[in-house]
Amino acid sequence: MSLFKKLFAKATGAVSAFTNGDCAEALVGGSFICAALDGSTDESEVEKAIAMFETNERLTGFDVNGLVGKWEKAVATSARMAKRDFFKLCESLASDAAQAEEVLIAIIEVADADGNIDDDEMAFLEVTASKLGLNLKEML
């Protein structure tokens, strides 16, 4: 079991009040993709993601472990295809500003968990913001 999956196991019961399951999936998928961009999953990024899930009252009831497993496998199999699928989710959320902002802010927090947003993370955030119909600079 990966570090990400082990730490996310703590948050299993913490995810569900979004009516759109795509939002919960985008939160988990985007967080996982962002945490894995440098080729390894940093514990501080994982812990930040878990803390966000545990404290977000709008997230309750989704199978976080299932979503983590799905995205972990997707990224390990083909990071490009995982990003493509994630960006499609983002496009589907663009019409709901609240959910779009929730996803982008969560991923920014994961990217910045180690105190530095590196170039790969910034590029990912820029594309994510664009797909969500948001201005990244307004969120940073």
List the helices and strands and how they pair.
Blueprint: H1 3-8, H2 21-36, H3 43-55, H4 64-77, H5 79-93, H6 97-111, H7 119-132, H8 136-139
Question: What do these coordinates show?
Answer:
The chain starts with a helix and ends with a helix. By secondary structure, the protein is mainly alpha-helical. The protein has helices spanning 3-8, 21-36, 43-55, 64-77, 79-93, 97-111, 119-132, 136-139. It has one domain (3-139): TerB-like, CATH 1.10.3680.
C-alpha geometry: globular
Q: Which spans have pLDDT < 50 for at least 5 consecutive residues? A: 10-17
**Count of helical segments?**
8
Strand content: under 5%
Number of domains: 1
Q: Please identify the structural class as seen in this structure.
A: mainly alpha
Order of helices and strands: HHHHHHHH
Our measurement of the CA-to-CA distance between the termini, rounded to an integer number of angstroms, reads: 33 Å
Give the oligomeric state: single chain
* Main sheet makeup: none
Q: Helical proportion?
A: 55-70%
Which CATH class is shown? Answer: Mainly Alpha
* CATH-defined architecture: Orthogonal Bundle
Total strands: the figure is 0
* Rg, alpha carbons: 13 Å
- Find the CATH topology: TerB-like
Overall pLDDT score: 81
